[in-house]
Amino acid sequence: MQFLCYNLTKKIYTTTYFKLFVVVVFILLVIIDFQPLRSSSISEQYNTSAGSSGFVGVVSAFSRYPLIHISNRRRLQQQQADTLKTVMASPPRLLEVFEDDGTSGIKNNTTATTKTSTTTNTACCETKVSPHKSPTGKYIRRPMTMLTPNKIQKDSTPKRKGYLGWDDYFLGVAVLSSHRSKDPEHAEGACIADAENRIVAIGYSGFPRGCPDTIFPWNDYNKEDNDNDNNDKKDETQQQQWLHSKRPYVCDAATNAVLNKGSQDLAGCRLYVTKHPTSDCVKVMIQSGIRELIILQKKGIKNTIYNMTNMTEDDINQLMSNATEENEDIIASHFMLSKADIHFRYYLPPIPSRTLDFGCTDDVKRPTIKDGSCSSSSTIIMTDDEREAANILKEETKYDAFLVNNNGRRDDYLSWDDYFMSVALLTAQRSKDPNTLVGACIVDDGRRIVGLGYNGMPRGLNDDDMPWARANSNQLFNKYKYVTHAEVNAILNSKGSYSSHVNGGTLYVTLFPCENCAKMIIQSGIRKIVYLKDVYHHTDGTCASRVMLRCAKVELQQYIPTMPTMIVKYYDQES
User: Residue 403 has what DSSP assignment?
Assistant: First the structure.
């Protein structure tokens, strides 16, 4: 059987058809495989890899060009790709390729030398990368420079050191908000900030919406005035005086701030107040999810924190026996805060006040605020809403607002424009920019602040590592490539609170927006801009900004200061 197979195989090998088949296969292999090489160095490698033995060696001996197996070509392409990945992934190589050594460009500006080379131990080929033929060369069409912290610290201006701290800033906003209150004796302000230090709600003490402060009484209720009357007359008089005072109508600042939150979840937020909140406010605060309470401490006044968790019943009874009505409410508030595991503390700012400069002369006379307030003249002009409220008060409480020329309302409160621009100026004090401080405040159609921002570095960038210079010869070491403007920050900080109310809102800003901020303002839907200064009016950027804003029908209004400065007073210096 073996002998028959051997003879049959021998006859097949010696036939003409089989020889013709072998020749055709050989020709096809030659057409597919061999290719003239462009590099003499790589040609030598393939000649060497082909060798002098085997089928490929025999073919190479009779051919003018070396033959390359198809897998060898693929290995060459993969080898070049691996070389590029290796070079780009090597930190020393990155520094060597990109870092500037004093000349603007790659090292030595053209053909920098390198001490490293990439070598691949492949059986078929070996590739060496020289500096001037680096695979990264075709991706680097212009000189590039690595930005290192050492160069930044060496060539830049340090950040501003006198910027406002977070607690001082939030309490400052609360103090400014208290200047909107019409309460002549106990004007209060409140501010709520989230975990990312964004203001989500602001409030001040005042009457509820729809209850005009020009009609409702602002005088306080004094219980001690009726102690000498008989019981029946005393009860009737006390009830009438209580209804004719501000007590039953005023909504405290903390409650207003919580209710002004919009759609923002207050869980985990901090509440800053200018005065200790009442027990009613504390209940609202606890129910809203606020986890920390910060109270403005007045210098020279001792504030006591009552820790009720470790007190016995006898200690609580003794404490309440000597407490006044105000202290009873504070003790009840501390008891609820302790049981709810809410941290609360008093904070004393390092300086008694902050001065906000509007940039106008000292001889500016503050105009009279005209918003429907009652005048001291005998003729009182009321709106329809005010007349309706006066009739309701007279019908329900026998309080005749038509006969009252002065309901006790404060006259030196801040107007809306003064208030919003003051908040923008205070927000600018948070900026680390040593040259330009810019603040922005976005207000919705309900006159609620929905976004605040100042010019600074993006989130996550250390202010100490980034450049603050503006006249460096190398643009990479100037602030302009990195600083985010106040208007953009105000728009982005509105996310999560009243982001939908930014559309159609008003932007108060201390400096006229640039062309980049104008795009963001238009796209976010803001319809009006009130600016304090227009320093760069004649620059191309501001001109382009005006063109876009006017074409987009955004109303532009320059704020006219009504006072040279605004003082944010935390406490009296004398105390």
Answer: G
For residues 306 and 323, the answer to whether their CB atoms sit within 8 Å is no
Residues in CB range of 438: below 8 A, 6 or more apart:
428, 431, 454, 455, 485, 486, 509, 510, 511
pLDDT at 206 over 80: yes
pLDDT tens column, 7-35: 656 566 566 777 777 778 778 776 665 44
pLDDT at 23: 79
Locus of tokens 């009243």: 498
- The answer to whether residues 443 and 506 touch, using CB atoms and an 8 Å cutoff, is yes
Percentage of the chain with pLDDT > 70?
A: 65
For residue 261, how many other CB atoms are within 10 A of its CB?
19
> Which burial class, exposed, middle or buried, applies to 421 when counting CB atoms under 10 A from its CB (0-12, 13-18, 19+)?
buried
Q: How far apart are CA 153 and CA 467, in angstroms?
A: 8
Element at 511 (helix H, strand E): strand 506-511
Catalytic pick from 236, 487, 555, 574?
Answer: 487
Give the integer Cα–Cα distance in Å for 455 and 462.
14
Q: In angstroms, rounded to a whole number, what is the distance separating the alpha carbons of residues 145 and 136? A: 15
DSSP per residue, 280-329: HHHHHHHHHT--EEEEEPPTT--------TT--HHHHHHHHHT--HHHHH
Identify the band that residue 150 occupies on the pLDDT scale cut at 50, 70 and 90.
Answer: low
Q: Collapsing DSSP states into helix, strand and coil, what is residue 508?
A: strand
Q: Is 292 a catalytic residue?
A: no
